[in-house]
Specification:
The protein is α+β, with helices and mostly antiparallel strands and about 230 residues long. About 30% of the residues lie in helices and about 30% in strands. It has two domains: about 35 residues; about 180 residues, no CATH class. This is DUF4340 domain-containing protein.
């Protein structure tokens, strides 16, 4: 074998070893000094059964605080689009402001959301009259739809009731798993609607035989005033 062939072969070896060194050096560096990874904590969305209380004992649901969050807070939290706002007058009751979100999604749970605001009946009555003719509702109330100008004038009204209607059918086992055992439970014989009451958390759940569910959230004090617990 000539010296020239030996030199060419040695040159190939040198080039090969050099390339291997170039490739392996970063890998070795990574093995000895792995990069610092920043772990971002995943925060659980405010799901229907995730109820917390502030220092004043007011429940927080879906990121909204009952008897504290206002119309302005809700518009900022949920956005100004997607909600339908109306003032409702029911016979024998002061008028209330309601917001209806037909396509409400929290986490992966879909449903309908209804928010009620009460207080300052004079201001609500003025806005009700300002919009002229009212439309009847299925519940026997009269309503007028309101827009941004009215909401601006009513921006400080507090949130007093949250109603969530899950899209999926929910059986009793799931309700008990998520909300626990109710303090009071009763069945309406005529309608076959099952009631589950959690007075300490301000929760009232209604469930039909087919699993259609309505979940109401309010303050414990307000729930005790509106429902006669003793007779159940």
């Amino acid at each position: 074998m000539s010296r020239r062939k030996i030199r060419v072969r040695q040159l190939y070896w040198i080039l090969g070893l050099t390339l291997i060194a170039i490739v392996l050096t970063p890998l070795v560096r990574l093995l000895w000094h792995p990069p610092t990874t920043v772990q971002t904590p995943t925060k659980e969305p405010p799901l229907p059964w995730s109820i917390t209380f502030d220092e004043a004992g007011r429940p927080s649901v879906f990121g909204l605080v009952l008897d504290s969050s206002t119309v302005a807070d809700v518009l900022q939290h949920l956005g100004k689009g997607g909600g339908q706002w109306a003032i409702l007058e029911r016979p024998g009751n002061p008028p209330v402001l309601e917001a209806y979100y037909p396509d409400f999604i929290v986490g992966r749970i879909e449903g309908k959301l209804i928010l009620r605001f009460s207080g300052d009946p004079e201001a609500l009555s003025r806005e009700f009259t300002r919009h002229g003719r009212a439309e009847p509702t299925a519940s026997g109330a009269r309503k007028v739809e309101v827009g941004p100008e009215s909401l601006s004038r009513l921006s400080r009204l507090p949130l007093t009731l949250i109603t969530f209607l899950p899209k999926a059918q929910i059986d009793e086992a799931i309700l008990r798993e998520r909300y626990g055992s109710p303090a009071h439970q009763w069945l309406e014989e005529e309608t076959k609607v099952q009631h589950y009451l959690y007075p300490e958390r301000g929760i009232h759940i209604l469930r039909t035989e087919r699993g259609r569910t309505v979940i109401e959230y309010t303050t414990p004090e307000r729930l005790r005033r509106h429902l006669s617990i003793e007779r159940h």
